[in-house]
Design brief:
The structure holds two protein chains of two kinds.
Chain A (H helix, E strand, L loop, with lengths): L2 E5 L2 E3 L5 E8 L8 E6 L5 E7 L6 E3 L7 E6 L4 E6 L8 E8 L9 E4 L3 E5 L2
Parallel strand pairs in A: 2-11
Antiparallel strand pairs in A: 1-3, 3-8, 4-5, 4-9, 5-6, 7-8, 9-10, 9-11
Chain B lengths: L8 E4 L5 E6 L9 E5 L6 E4 L13 E6 L2 E6 L8 E9 L2 E4 L3 E5 L1
Parallel strand pairs in B: 1-9
Antiparallel strand pairs in B: 2-6, 3-4, 3-7, 5-6, 7-8, 7-9
The chains are: A mainly beta, B mainly beta.
């Protein structure tokens, strides 16, 4: 059974940092692009960033470029997102999601984690 | 940046058919997919590659995509289908989600 479990969320002051983790099981993490998607309270879904199977390529939404950094450790079946320079508008539930088709970019997300909440407030 | 627009809300009576639209420039030239999200839960993929249903998704969910509009149709709507629905596409190295539609089953 495919499972994605996020952790690392919490309350942080503006300008602070957090590192989110996503533990994957039930499939070969090294075969899939992986994404982070967020949802602000009462708002819609927003794609944040993704990373290629081997970590050699990353894409970011403009609003987080230069502040968020994705990495992965396939040997540990884990995905990470380092979030620096956090702003109030980054407050959201952050989901880890698997891109459905192995090795292919630009499809859709067939498995999602339960999400981890991030609150940026003083 | 690419924008996908959905109606904020639609309502439907149990057993009836409801369609949700998703509009974007030349969307028909891309693959569209749809997610269902119930309160407090993670999104679930219900349609991918315009018309395909993942395993476990009921046949009452169907999709189409042409021109500038993708459409999700729920036939024989059930109370359990009440949820938020989001379309999604890929454009210029970004995934883009639609604005979301709340489906209310009256």
């Amino acid at each position: 059974e495919v499972q994605l479990v996020e952790s690392g969320g919490g309350l942080v002051q503006p300008g602070g940092s957090l590192r989110l983790s996503c533990a994957a099981s039930g499939f070969s993490l090294s075969s899939h692009w992986m994404s982070w998607v967020r949802q602000a309270p009462g708002k819609g879904l927003e794609w944040v960033a993704n990373i290629k199977q081997d970590g050699s390529e990353r894409n970011y939404v403009d609003s987080v470029k230069g502040r968020f950094t994705l990495s992965r450790d396939n040997a540990k079946n884990s995905l990470y997102m380092q979030m620096d320079g956090l702003r109030a508008e980054d407050t959201a539930v952050y989901y880890c999601a698997r891109e459905r088709v192995p090795m292919i970019l630009g499809t859709d997300f067939d498995y999602w984690g339960q999400g981890t909440p991030v609150t940026v407030s003083s | 940046s690419y924008v996908l627009t959905q109606p904020p809300s639609v309502s439907v009576s149990p057993g009836q058919t409801v369609s949700i639209t998703c509009s974007g420039n030349r969307l028909g030239h891309k693959y569209a997919c749809w997610y269902q999200q119930k309160p407090g839960q993670s999104p679930v993929l219900v349609i991918y590659e315009d018309t395909k249903r993942p395993s476990g998704i009921p046949e009452r969910f169907s999709g189409s995509n042409s021109g500038n509009t993708a459409t999700l149709t729920i036939s024989g709507t059930q109370a359990m289908d009440e949820a938020d629905y989001y379309c999604q596409a890929w454009d210029s190295s970004n995934y883009v989600f639609g604005t979301g539609t709340k489906v209310t089953v009256l």
